[in-house]
Structures are given as C-alpha cells and as structure tokens.
Amino acid sequence: MHRPLVVDRVYLTGLTPLGEQKSEPEAHSVNHGLTEIYRAVAQSKIPAISKQKRALIISVFDGIGALRVALNRLQVPVYLYVSVELDKAGRRCMRRWWPGLFECTDVEKFDEGVWKQIKDRCVGVIDTVLIGGGSPCQNLSVLNTGPKHLKGDRSKLFWHFPRLVKEAKIYFPDVEIHFVLENVMSMTPTSRRMISAALSSRPWLLDGRWFTHCRRPRLFWTSWPLQPHECFHIIAHEDYDELVVRVQTFDHSVWVKEGWQWPADNAELLPTLTRVVRRKHPLKDPAGLAQASFGAIERWELDDFSRQVYNYEDRVMLFNPLAGARRLPNVTECEILMGFDANYTLGGFKKITGRVLDECRSFLGNTFCVPVVTWILSHWLVRFKYAEELCPPETGLNLLSLPKPWSEQDLFCKRSHPVSTRECQLV
C-alpha cells in the first residue's frame, strides 16, 4: 500500500552568514503541507512489491545507510542487512534508525568467519544477495590534488568490493548475486576502465540534478540492465552511458528554511555536496579558484577553506532579504536535498556542536543521493521479479517514510496478563 507523501520540515540552522558557526542550533521551524508536485507524486501508484522474496543486503562503506533508506522507500522485504562501516558516528546513526542490522566495522576484516555467521542466519531462507556501496573517492576525485587513483590509501579499498561479490557466489551458490557500486565521475578514464574491468560492467552516469536541486554526477556500475521506459533516455559515450531522467522534483520551498530564499529567477543548481574539512591554509591548486569572485574568496577564507570556493558565490547561496545576509544550506536542508528525513544524521551524536554539524555535512557529502539510488534499485526489482513494473522516479523523494528511531518505539508487546521475560516478543 502506497503511503501518501507528507512533508514535515523541521529546520536546524547550521552555518550562519560568512561562516560564523554556532555551537547549538539557532531555531526550529515546523511546516506541514504538500506542494502541487508532491500531490501529483502522492497520487501516483507504486507497483506492488512481492513479500514472498527475501533479500540479504550487504552495504559496503555504508556510511549513514542511504542504501537502507532507498530500500525502505521501495518497501523491499530485507531479511538481513549487513552494514560495513568504520566510522563510529555512522554506526550509531544506523543503530538508531535500523535496529537489528548485522555490523562489520572494517571491510578489510570481512573474512571467512564473517561470511559463516551471515550464512548461518540466511542459508535456505533468502532468494537474492545484493551488495552495494560507494567506495572511497578521496584518491580519485579531481577536487583532491595529487590523485593516486586506485592505489591510494583510501581508494584502494575498492578492491574489496569485487572480492566480496566473488565470495558471495561461493557462500550462496543457489541464489542470484547482484551488485551496485557508486563513485565520482571526475576520476580519470584509466581508473574508470579499471573498475569496469574488475566488475565486468559498463557504468551509467547519473546526476542527482534530475531528482533534486543539487548537482551530484556519479558513475554507477550494476549487475542488471536498465528497463526501457519513457521517463529516461541514454546518451552513449566511449566507455560509459549517460542517463537523462525526467522527474517531477519538489520546489525550493520544500527544502529552504522559512525566511530564506533561493536567488530569484536563478536556474542554477547547488554544487555537489562534499566533506567539510577546516584548514588553516587552502589546498594547493584548489578547484575553481581562478574563476572565483572576490566576495566568494573572502567568504571561503572566513569559513576556514572548508569547502570548494565556488560554493560561496552569490548565485548558489541562500538569501535572507530582511537581513540582507547570505549563507550556505544548513544540515537539515542538505538532508532533504539528498533524500533523507530531517535530522536523520544527528542520530549518530549525543550533543549538537559546531564540530558535530560539520561531521553531519561530511556524512551527506560522502553518501548516496537517495532518490537516485532508489530509482536504480527499482530496475533491480523488475529484473529480479520483485515488481512487475518500474516505480515512479519520484519514489525516492518520499520523505517521512522512515520508521521511528528504535529509542522512540515500544519494543515489546503489551499483554493484559503478566508474562515472563521469555514470553515477551519484539513488535
């Protein structure tokens, strides 16, 4: 049954104008309602998902669980979700939203012992294995100077991904094994071809701009073909295919905090969200510096060179006409742009500070764009016969479809008569 889309915007302020960051959120504002676009999406019908099939999901470099959120948007019955994530705050966020997951802290320690534990839980009861992830891009992206490509300390972890795909076929020989891998478009052609060869897959270039108001050009390698549909077309390139998708996206009022505006008559999109790293000095040859305006460079310096300089141009900053101030999107605005519910990332922290807000932004800079991955997974559903037809491309924009965090739920059944501890069952 398709849940109606309801947008509950709880805004949390982050960076104030010119980088004067507060240690606590300044204010909250709640607004209930639907835009016309969302009403149209709410009325569209999501194809029924088979509840007879069960999936084992292994999310490598899981971060804050964008893959799990996308599966939830699609209402996929997940038998076991294996989260492979090294960051402690990321793991706390996942536990808060998705109790019952199987944790592996380090992909390098995902060995025979881990596989046997997973097999003991899943053998004979699952129909497919899906391995997903976005391998580290720090040594691949052109935003970082001196790239070491797939030999860098972080990006070389990619090689564990094809290893796990091969091992899954050994431990689960009787079920279908599928994968989806994401990484930056800005890698060199050599790195792109190496990944394609390792996975025996030709990548798709899909930009988050088609789904939201933020650029996010990413390459996706999948083990399944895309299902033909009138909502997209393909532009072929030498060693990858570019996808152009027609999506009814939300308007700016859905994600911009009340009192602030996207620059009037501005058709531009926000630059790609990235990690936040504060520095005393800028990196050598930072991207976009030669074309940057004086005002953008000044703001960039005041904000400790924490992002790329082009984020501070007037045309891509939010504007408050009453105060005459400009600022970058705050954490909650970025969460909505990336397809997460408001305050999702704060689940990994006990106290809100300036450092914590920077970490939340970094989570969002490193994660999947949920609407994009949701749409790609809908093709997997058809391929594996979870569904008979594609879900609408707007499905991933269904905010407020997440369950409550486990700490806010009644975990045990209420009985009218006394029972022993052993008789209590999880809801």
Say what the CATH topology is: Rossmann fold
Whole-number average pLDDT? 82
**What count of structural domains?**
1
Structural class: alpha/beta
Concise account of the structure shown:
With 427 residues, the chain is α/β, with parallel strands linked by helices. The chain has helices at residues 36-43, 66-73, 88-97, 112-122, 160-171, 189-199, 294-302, 331-337, 354-366, 370-383; strands at 7-10, 30-33, 55-60, 78-84, 102-104, 128-134, 176-184, 204-207, 217-222, 232-236, 241-245, 318-320, 325-327.
Polypeptide structure, described:
With 427 residues, this protein is an alpha/beta fold. The protein has a single domain, classed as Rossmann fold (3-Layer(aba) Sandwich), CATH 3.40.50.150. The protein has ten helices and 13 strands. The chain has helices at 36-43, 66-73, 88-97, 112-122, 160-171, 189-199, 294-302, 331-337, 354-366, 370-383; strands spanning 7-10, 30-33, 55-60, 78-84, 102-104, 128-134, 176-184, 204-207, 217-222, 232-236, 241-245, 318-320, 325-327. A nine-stranded mixed sheet has the order 5-4-3-6-7-9-8-11-10, with helices on both faces. Strands 1-2 form a two-stranded antiparallel ribbon. Strand 6, helix 5 and strand 7 form a beta-alpha-beta unit. Helix 2 (66-73) crosses helix 10. The longest helix has 14 residues, at 370-383. 42% of the residues are buried. The model is unreliable at 1-39 and 410-427 (pLDDT under 50).
